[in-house]
Amino acid sequence: MRTGRVTQTIWNRSVKKQIQKGNRNSTGKTAWEESSSELISDEKDFVWSSTSVSGKAPAQVKYAVIKSAGDLAAKRVRPTAVSVQILFPESSDEQELKDIMRILTEICEETGLSITCVQAESAEYVLRPVIQITAVGVKENPKQQMKKWIPGTEIILCGYTGLEGTLRLVDEAEADLRTRFTPSFIEKTKRCKEALILPKQVLQLTEEAKSRQCGDGGVLCGLWELAEAEKIGFEIDFSKLALKQETVEICEFFQLNPYLLTSAGSYLVLTEHGEETLESLKNAGVPAVRIGFVKEQNARTLVNGEETRYLDRPAPDELSRWWKERKESEE
């Protein structure tokens, strides 16, 4: 594609046409208009959340939508719409844009989101496509306040550690994985996307529960951010952090730590009513397990059998490290 914003012809053919086919609820303005004024209101309490992803596979847009909309759902905000900005390398072609828009409309249909704005352009400084998704929603409980969690409050993990990162690795490096794994294993891994937790499922949590989505840096980063946000200490049974076997094997192949691998579509939940919350999650089709509890002290401990250690500050995400090492090996 030429440098700069895509042409009107390409936008109509590969963006507008895809939205009209797949996202019936989309009423937002186009990339050729300056703003989405529908998102401005004096009567409702709007909340926005943005996520950026980078990679060669068009499916990355799906994970960006899940992440940005999921961050809203975790705050008891019902996501209603997304806008997207895409930066392409100059070597990209129109088919890449079309593929991204097809997947974007599919995930928005699945999650009940409208598409309000799409902007796409190419630039000489971009090495691989970069997608930024901004989700917007309205608070369901505008008066929700900070809660002081008592010792013994349970911590639940919904979904699977490192699953999003695993799926993105398959999207980006399927050819490499086929040198070790069978086609049936690869296809089985792709089907694991059905285990990602969607925003509408998170919104079914009991009112007293507090949730936080895991994202960059994986579940360990999520635990740190949860502790910082809620001002708590905790004890986590490391062996309870749910992992798909496919994640274990693919991370072993690429020598990555699954606990530091991006995990959008999985959530940490604080609750004083563990059984009720687990039952609610089960009814919503959400895999969930108790992994620990809040402690009176501020210490953040991870227990693995007889070994106990303190949670470290967040480390860089393993997918980012993988991309960096891959780029260096290609140079």
From TrEMBL:
<dbReference type="GO" id="GO:0051604">
    <property type="term" value="P:protein maturation"/>
</dbReference>
<protein>
    <recommendedName>
        <fullName>PurM-like C-terminal domain-containing protein</fullName>
    </recommendedName>
</protein>
<dbReference type="InterPro" id="IPR036676">
    <property type="entry name" value="PurM-like_C_sf"/>
</dbReference>
<dbReference type="Pfam" id="PF02769">
    <property type="entry name" value="AIRS_C"/>
</dbReference>
<dbReference type="InterPro" id="IPR016188">
    <property type="entry name" value="PurM-like_N"/>
</dbReference>
<dbReference type="InterPro" id="IPR011854">
    <property type="entry name" value="HypE"/>
</dbReference>
<dbReference type="Pfam" id="PF00586">
    <property type="entry name" value="AIRS"/>
</dbReference>
<feature type="domain" description="PurM-like N-terminal">
    <location>
        <begin position="63"/>
        <end position="138"/>
    </location>
</feature>
<dbReference type="InterPro" id="IPR036921">
    <property type="entry name" value="PurM-like_N_sf"/>
</dbReference>
<comment type="similarity">
    <text>Belongs to the HypE family.</text>
</comment>
<feature type="domain" description="PurM-like C-terminal">
    <location>
        <begin position="213"/>
        <end position="298"/>
    </location>
</feature>
<dbReference type="InterPro" id="IPR010918">
    <property type="entry name" value="PurM-like_C_dom"/>
</dbReference>
